[in-house]
Amino acid sequence: QVQLVESGGGLVQAGGSLRLSCAASRRAFNTYTMGWFRQAPGKEREFVAAMHWSGGATYYTDSVKGRFTVSRDNAKNTVYLQMNSLKPEDTALYSCAAAAAFGKKDPKEYAYWGQGTQVTVSS
What we know:
The protein has no helices and eleven strands.
């Protein structure tokens, strides 16, 4: 079992930055692909970004490419999402998740989830 706890959300003005963190509960963290998803009110959960367990490969949804960066520190069992040039449409509940396989964007492929951290971007 892997437990995930997100932090770092908050209220920021458009154009600002936030860094989200996701701390995992066990050392096997370094064998999972770690992903970030978001869900805005009234919308489906959306894939944002993910990183291979080795830290060597990442992929992003098109709307955040060039603005968001995912990284991980396996020694700290933590994955990060650096979000720059934030837009009001980035407002959502952001959750991290862990998957055994790499390259997945479907939430169903992720076995473990955190509770999420709210990001609100004002215009």
